[in-house]
Design a protein that fits this description.
Structural class: alpha/beta
Radius of gyration: 20 Å
Shape: elongated
Strand content: 5-15%
Oligomer: single chain
């Protein structure tokens, strides 16, 4: 779409890029050598709020960060990207097991192991609409090897997955709303979104749209979130073609 001014990746990792007017780029001292009045800005938004002063971090987010290979980096990415969502849920479950509120206080070696509760499990659990949450039971007992789960246990786990998944979608939408506002495109903008979270995670796209309405009000009607497959590959091809010219 010619009205596309923002590109976002929401998958294992996350990032965003947008089209900016050259005269709005303070670091660019001399724009006279450019034959365009616009430039694509790579935001690296996964690194937003390294200082932990803006985002709604929880004790579980800090645990994920401390145990990661890059502590105190990629703060935004660690609360919204697919690499970390399952780990956040795992830590919450371990906390509830320790207090005896989940699985009668029983855990498993798999659940005790870092990153062994995958975000794909969350997706499967959120899709489970059976009366006794039988698919959730299969994930917890057959895959994660929890000895026994009650229906109440499964309702709690599904609730945790919904909370973590919803927060990811809403924070992603907040980032998009900030960029749309920054470039003054509230009157109309298409956002090309690539990545498994947006494409495959249940309700993710709709949760983003709901959040945009909360943040931007009626202007959200002018913001289109559009699925863009292989955005990274297409972007690389475009850049290569431009360089060739």
């Amino acid at each position: 779409s010619p009205n596309t001014y923002i590109g976002v990746i929401l998958g294992t990792g996350t990032n965003a890029a947008y089209v900016e007017q050259l005269n709005n780029i303070p670091k660019l001292k001399d724009a006279s050598s450019f034959n365009s009045d616009e430039m694509i800005i790579n935001t690296e938004w996964g690194a937003f709020d390294q200082e932990n002063v803006v985002l709604p971090f929880t004790e579980y987010d800090f645990k994920v960060d401390r145990a990661s290979i890059n502590p105190h980096q990629q703060a935004f990415e660690k609360v919204i990207s697919g690499m970390y969502l399952g780990e956040i849920v795992r830590l919450v479950m371990l906390d509830l097991i320790e207090t005896g509120e989940l699985f009668a206080g029983k855990s498993s070696e798999i659940l005790k192991t870092k990153y062994q509760f995958e975000t794909a499990y969350m997706s499967r659990i959120e899709r489970d609409h059976t009366l006794d949450l039988s698919d959730t039971k299969a994930v917890l007992e057959d895959i994660v090897k929890i000895p026994k789960t009650s229906r109440t246990d499964r309702v709690i786990v599904k609730g945790i997955c919904e909370l973590v998944g919803r927060r990811s979608a809403r924070l992603s939408a907040a980032g998009i709303a900030a960029i749309v506002t920054k470039i003054n495109r509230l009157d109309g903008c298409t956002v090309a979104v690539d990545g498994s979270l947006f494409e495959l995670y249940p309700h993710f796209a709709n949760r983003m749209r709901d959040a945009l309405h909360e943040i931007l009000g009626l202007s959200a009607e002018n913001i289109v979130l559009e699925q863009a497959r292989d955005g990274s590959g297409q972007g690389a091809a475009l850049i290569a073609a431009l360089a060739e010219e």
